[in-house]
């Protein structure tokens, strides 16, 4: 973690790590939490393996969907870690993503109350980090992490 370049978020999710992993790797479950509600998400491609595609679209009216992310998974460690970047698109072409290029690392670890969920988003320079923070990293990633928790925690108590 480099505080000049990175942004982080951490939370305990009150559900087993398997449930959190499934919410990340099952397209129908990812669609339930990946973008802040009430915006809707569609998963076009979710190939959760190193080199696999991560492509989603989003819609604010539920009818017209626009590109949201076109990224590549760099590292996938089953039930422990997912690393993806939008600096390389799903066809392995260099990309210039708007508004900011990033590499995101999601780590999952067992916790006495469920799963310790950590997000580390790396940027190429301090200006990109500052832009991402200004655009609402904490609110955006915090909201979707809360939605993820809501999805898996509601299933964990059934």
Protein architecture, described:
There is one protein chain. By secondary structure, the chain is an alpha+beta fold. The chain has one domain: Alpha-D-Glucose-1,6-Bisphosphate, Chain A, domain 4 (2-Layer Sandwich). Helix content is 27%, strand content 36%. The chain has four helices and seven strands; from the N terminus they run βααββββββαα. A hairpin with a 3-residue loop joins β4 and β5. The chain starts with 5 loop residues before the first strand and ends with a helix. The mean pLDDT is 96.
What features would you highlight for this structure?
36% strand; 158 residues; START-like_dom_sf; ASHA1/2-like_C; Polyketide cyclase; alpha+beta; single chain
CATH hierarchy: architecture: 2-Layer Sandwich
Class of secondary structure makeup: alpha+beta
CATH topology category name: Alpha-D-Glucose-1,6-Bisphosphate, Chain A, domain 4
User: Major sheet, described briefly?
Assistant: 7 strands, antiparallel
Number of helices: 4
CATH class: Alpha Beta
Low-confidence runs: none
Q: Which oligomeric state applies?
A: single chain
**Spatial separation of the terminal alpha carbons:** 37 Å
SSE succession: EHHEEEEEEHH
Total number of β-strand segments?
7
Share of helix, binned: 25-40%
Family: Belongs to the AHA1 family.
Protein name: Polyketide cyclase
Pfam families: AHSA1 (PF08327)
InterPro entries: ASHA1/2-like_C, START-like_dom_sf
């Amino acid at each position: 973690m480099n505080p000049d370049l990175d942004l982080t978020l951490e939370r305990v999710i009150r559900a087993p790590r398997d449930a959190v992993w499934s919410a990340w790797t099952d397209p129908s479950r990812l669609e339930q939490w990946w973008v802040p509600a009430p915006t809707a998400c569609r998963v076009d491609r979710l190939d959760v393996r190193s080199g696999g595609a991560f492509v989603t679209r989003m819609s604010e009216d539920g009818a017209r969907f626009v590109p949201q992310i076109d990224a590549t998974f760099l590292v996938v460690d089953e039930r422990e870690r997912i690393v993806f970047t939008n600096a390389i698109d799903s066809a392995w072409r260099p990309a210039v993503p708007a508004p900011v290029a990033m590499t995101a690392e999601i780590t999952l670890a067992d916790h006495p109350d469920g799963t310790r969920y950590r997000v580390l988003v790396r940027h190429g320079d301090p200006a990109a980090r500052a832009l991402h923070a200004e655009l609402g990293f904490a609110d955006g990633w915090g909201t979707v992490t809360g939605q993820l928790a809501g999805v898996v925690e509601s299933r964990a108590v059934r």
